Amino acid sequence: MCPLFGIVWYIGCKGVYITACFTIGNSYVRQPRRNTLKDEAVRDPRPDCHLPRRCHAYYTKTNYTQAYYTKTNYTQDYYTKTNYTQDYYTKTDYTQDYYTKPTTPKITITPKPATTKITTPKSTKPIPTTPKTTLKTTVKTTTTLKQNITTSVKSTSTLKSTTTNLIVTTTQTPNPNVSTTTLKPATKFLVCRDANSTALAGTIQLDQNSPKSYCSFDIVAPQDRQIRIYCSSLNFNSSPSSNFIINGDLDTNEQLVLNRMYYSVNNTLSLIYSKLSNGDSFDCQWTTAPAEITSKPLLCRHAQSSSASGIIQPSPSDGGPSRKCFFSVNVLPTHRIQISCSELNRTSETTLSIDGVTENVQYPGPVLNRVYYSVDNSVYLSSQVGNGMWFNCNWTTIPKPVTANSQFCLHGMASTANGTIQPMTGLTDEPKTCRFYITAPSNNQIQISCSVVNLQAPGIYNSYLSIGGVLDRYIDYSLILNRLYYSTADNNVVLTSQVNNATWFNCKWVTIPKENTTNSKLCRHAVSTTATGTIQPMTGDVDPPRDCPFTLNADYNKEIQISCSAINILNTDSYLLISGSNEFASPPVLNRVYYTSSQISVVSLIGNGDGFECKWITTPLQNTSDAKLCRHGSATSANGTLQSMAGDTGPPRSCSFSISAAPYDQQIQFSCSAINFVNPNSYFKISGTFDSANPPVVNRVYTSTVNNKISISSQLGEGDWISCQWTTTPRERTPDNKLCYNRESSTPNGTIQPFAGDTGSPRQCSFSILPSYNQQIEILCSTVTLADAKNYFRISGAIDSADPPIVKRLYASKSNTRIDISSKLGNGDQVKCNWTTTPIGIVICRQTEAKSANGTIQPIAGDTGPPRECPFNIYAPSGQEIRIFCTAVSLTSDSSSFSMSGSLDGESIQPVVNRVYYSTSSNIISLTSSLGNGEWVNCQWITVPRMNTSDSKLCRHEMATTANGTITPLTGDTGPPRICSFTVSNVDSAKQIQISCSVVNLNSATSSLSIGGVIDSNVNLPMVNRVYTSTDYISLQSQIANGDLFNCKWTTIPKKNTTNSQLCLDEEATTANGTIQPIAGDVGPPRRCRFVINAEAGKQIQISCSVVNLAGDTSFWRISGIIDSVGLTPSVNRVYTSTSNNAVFMNSRIGNEDWINCNWTTTPRENATNNKLCRHQSTVLKSGTIQPIAGDTGPSRECGFSINVYSSLQISCSTVNLVNPDSYLQFMSNSDNAEPVNPPVANTVYTYPYGNIQLTSKVGDGDWFDCKWK
């Protein structure tokens, strides 16, 4: 039985989901989850959980399940016996003072007394502990702090306690404008070394020396505390979203943001790391604080509230990317929640949705000041919040009504056994999409009918009234007046509709005792468990036709036999089908007996004049060794026979059969002595054997795979005959293996060949050879003869492919991996192969990798035959680098190749003889080759510690993290030019890098040197002594030949947030006011740079330029992110306003003779009734005016304005005076198919039934219009 809102199961870590109880009436139908409320009658009201790690945190670690409400303390006693009363909120510090009083370093935390004392160990090495979820242990942790701080914690958990000496310091956290006291541990923890910690604070980093590829680390705080964590360093060679995540926090975004504070849902957090490449690192810090119980929660900061009333707002923006978080309000089961939003400012990248209410509040989100009512006693908010996003939503609680006269959109759930449902009073012309739930006890059934349904009204499109959870299917648009509908076995009925003040319906429900009758009626009864009975359609109410299911259930040791004595299907669209585990019949044959175990379904679409009568009985389930197709569905006996059912007449039967007879060390052998088809469409298929067959070859033995289940599907008609038998035999572990008989072998030596003397059509089979630890398989085929070109014999898992293998050529497995053989062999084909296992060595085409610190790699000496394509990888541990050089690279054929990847010189390069190559931070050198007879290579490698030096060499060092340093080419390196890159990494987010080159002398025409990651764009050749400033890190790309020279130096400086910004020196400003100018006195060619101004949520930026002097022919100065058209050159002294994204972008190319001077201010964003074009971008108000800015001179302005109201709107213009030839004013709506209006006629009223009006315009001097909407 499904809970009220349905269930969504998330499978695995990829977010695969299955929706059960999609429609309450059709819970046996599994369908994909859909978004629209109309299509999804039963919807989980909780926030969508798109990322699997979040699903675990939200649905598993919190108790949002049916058990949560029944097994935990969400009962009346819970709220009366504990402090969840008014006194609780007045006696504690959860008031305004709590948020305004600073936290002092002196802390005493004593949640509960403790019983077990654990002392601090003498060693500073952390003690890893392993959480267990079942044992109960009482832990007392006494932590000694400087400044005389004592912390006592009692927790019931499964953890060994780790006690750490802590130092208290007051630091600025990544959360802006919040200074808090954090606890810094004297020791740190390492992921992949330590398993967990119960410390109140700590640092967590990656164990660089661990060989593990997947690790997790659990932080467990006491029950009454919340964990706060942020990462000050995240360095990954692959995407951080794919290999490092935090599980159990409020954010549902997968990718971590540097320095963003994350808060736990409960008292646990898990850090999960999957190693994709070497060189990863991170540095994260956590603290714990008392879990706040507040009536003023912040999204992304608090998980839930049980306050009777409160206000929810987003957390202050941290300036990073948007974040998706969830929040829930859970109140007394006897109460429901009213919630409304008095403020809501969204951007194109932000959202706010409310679930668990009677209305569908998804995109575009809640309507301002509209009151939404919870279905039950919980409401769920989810939001994508970011810069420019703001909302203010209030909730209160009211007692749940007990009424038999429910109002749609006001009430969400029936509170009486019988009652009526009608639209609520006070609706406006704005449509609402709502739902209403009716439930009944398991021994009852709901009967519902509607006497009036009138949904045709202005503003309502695609109208419908859907009843889900009833036996009739597909009634979204075909609900029949006064027809009685009956609930399914789940007894959950849901009504969904779109209504406004011009729509009406009246539906009535009653609950009646559930019948378990032997005389069942389709569309009236859902399930029967009686031993015998009949099923017929309902009489009298089948016009128009009804489509309903019926299910028969028997005990697990019983089978059902059903046959139909009457079938009268007259209408072309009508049907009757019977389905079970053995057979599918559509329609069933008159008087034919159908057999199935445990359950059978009858589904029918019955109209006027149609009829049928079917009868069933239950009998003991047979497990016989003499099985009949269509009579028996499965067998578990060790031996047996399978034949057609003798004497069965009528149309062909489609039946299935399975044999599950053998334990793991046994296998099933199946063969057919007779297969005789006289009907052209007959078939007999077997699967679960090494080679599937349709039909099997007579007298050929088929052997089961390791799953030990053979499945048969068939369609046999009158005159067809099959006779088959099976036995079970021990599964052999032999060195002498046969294709299609043996599945795999783990013997160190052996042979593989086909069955001798096997006749008939070719057989497609596979075989695997499994190696021992640290062993390699070597396979050689002495015979490979394929008589038919369509047949094949392939070896995979070897270093080089073999299709077919070359006779007497040795093939070696890839390191410690298996060899797989796939084949299609017929009569006359001959194959014989032998294998051995040997220790792994280092030879091309015999090994694929090496992890030794030093070594040499060469081809197999004396190998004949065509060229071989083989890979080889050299691995070094973290903190090391590989140096490799080749003393010989001799390729005699144009088709031969030998290339190297993973070095600082790039990918797929042919090594220059005696040139030393250095590995990147991935610490993998990959060699690929295609070498023929007589060709030779000889390469040697060593591994050495990786250096972090301030005197870096191009093609020798990959990265530097020092605060200051130089980068120059390698000296004395001869040979062709080298293409290499170099990175200066910024390890301190509060600083930025500046780089300049005192020498740039490139002699070759093909040589190049470019700098990336700086504010300047396209620095393809740095100007001597010009200073370039980083945005984050700096990268150098180069092609340097012998004789080229450069010398570049970098330093790090603190980032500044100044009101006097300089182009090409400052990248961003977040100050409320400021100026932007070029760097005075900067000589040299023009510089192309960008600059951005960011404002906090709820604010807008206004910018104007007092000087715009562009003297150069290629110079430009462009502003975007404003309401005016994108990328314009600003007019002097004209004020430009930012869009709702709250960011203004400047892009420029400025030379010595150019000058600009621009000033900006930030002001609160207005939601005005009197709007000005180019100053206001949009509104959500249902009435207002729009005009150009009076007195604005200069070139014409192209601006847009949108009225985001999703209900019927009327707009008219008292004046439309466009005097310039290129001026225009246009109205359009994205919500209907109406033609755009350009220009509007003065005093003409334009109606948009679905709202959402978009105004676009180009207005210049002398143009004017005055438009009003309502």
Automatic annotation (TrEMBL):
Region (Disordered), start-end ranges: 110-133
Name of the featured protein: CUB domain-containing protein
